[in-house]
Amino acid sequence: MNIEIFGAWVAVFLTLAIFSFLYKDNPFYKIAEHLFVGVSAGYWMSMFFWTQIQPNLFGRLWPSSQYSESGVWYRIYDLLGVVAGNVFPDGGIDKGHDLHFIYLIPLALGIMMLLSLYKPLNWMARWGIAYTVGMAAGLRAYGFLSSNVLGQVKGTIMPLVNTELPLFDLVEPSHFNNLVILVGTVTGLLYFYFSKEHKGVFGNVTKVGIYFLMISFGASFGFAVMGRISLLIGRFVDLLKFSGEQYHHASIWVLLLMVILLGYSAYKEKENPEV
Amino acid sequence: MNDREFIIGSVIFTIAFLIYWIVGHPYFIAERIVMFIAIIGFGGTLIFYTRKAQRGEDIFLRTIPGLKAVEEAVGRSTEMGKPVLFVPGIQDMDQVETVAGVIVLGHVSKMTARYETPLNVPVSRAIVMKAAREACKESYLIEGRPDMFHEDMVHYVTDEQFAYAAGVNGIMVREKPAACIYMGKFFAESLILAETGNSIGAIQIAGTASQAQIPFFVTACDYTLIGEEFFAASAYLSEKPELVGGVKGQDMIKLVIIGLILVGVVLRLGFDMGIININIMELLAAK
What we know:
The complex is a heterodimer. By secondary structure, chain A is mainly α. Chain A is 69% helix and 0% strand. Chain A is extended. The two termini of chain A are 38 Å apart. The longest helix of chain B has 32 residues. In chain B, helix 4 crosses helix 9. By secondary structure, chain B is of the alpha/beta class. Chains A and B meet through helix 2, helix 5, helix 6 and helix 7 of A and helix 2, helix 5, helix 6, helix 8 and helix 9 of B.
């Protein structure tokens, strides 16, 4: 059995194990779930380290381009290299970066996060959280204002008098569509106005807003379901492919085995419900 | 700083900027003037209402139905002797939805501490785990039940989106929580979580600003806080004046935006008909 066939059997087993959740929670699902959670947690940790921390942090603190054996900074590096040679290879880290001491700040914040494991100093982790939240808020304010506010205003100021546009067209721009965008945006915005109860005329206007929102949610739902169906078809195509002779009918055998075992388990459960 | 000083400061800033503008505004990218005015204007509005709230002035916010449901859900869990499951989304603390989710978690954990109801918070990011733990710990301390708090009530599952969904599904079907609360940023796992929660008969409340996921929560949950309702809810529940004032300030900004849109439409109408000479679209095209 070559590795491709073995991989197909594993893929079939895991796919069917996950699908078996549709019947009920069972040992097959538990195996797939724990395997998936465990492998992914380990995988992401390794990925973050080797794609972020090692090249982008250590690679900027000890780049090979500025390596010097006599410098104190690189002596520390060499010392670290003795402890973990593959993380800190000889002659500095070659990831095309220059030396930037500013990266000592993220290093310090990272160490502070790790200190949450040490109870007397675990308050230090709050600094990392505060930095993340504050930095993101400041960094995104400009982008949000530009795209979500001014972009929206610009996109809503539609021409209501333009001889080139038809009066009504469902697909192409038309005066009717422009009017729908204008009314939908204004009433939608008013729905999210919290300083006034939704009563009277204001209540009726916001009701129009929520109708617009619900119609857009419905369209979005339909679109997403279509996407999910294509994913399902993708899995079925694989299962059909792996049921062929080339893969020793993996799908059929695994499915049969699962059905028999789950059936037997259901039968035993019925016979002895306390177990 | 009192109101008088605030107004004097604003006037001094405006005059200083006008002088700077008249003398040729060196180092200022003139094409970004619209953004500059927007930032100063919106920022000023938010500061004004935040200060108002901090002074203890009465700020009215309409009731949001999903908010009352949170209390009902925790009460139901208490009656049934089952845990409350809180899912703060799958993104990190750099997302505003996650921050709002952690604020709501603080409120939920206060209730679970008060009613002695078990709380389970599976998370998918290390920083969120730390922040959520801090929020829960503080709530249990405030409620005078530090003995009930244990760090494992907020636990890491995995960073991987669907592995996280599979793990949370497993928790749902095995622990059978009476209430599932989803507050944060979600992606394709939203329907998987909400459907499983529905299948176990839990009362479900969701809150997210992830536009593509709201339909799934609306379909499968009992209550859904849509978009900004979620942020308003987190401000309302936190009872922090700066957040409540922020919501009020944002309301005023919305009115300004609606006004801008309507004025813009009229100006464009006038321009298209050849009545006026101002092209609003050119003005807004400035970055």
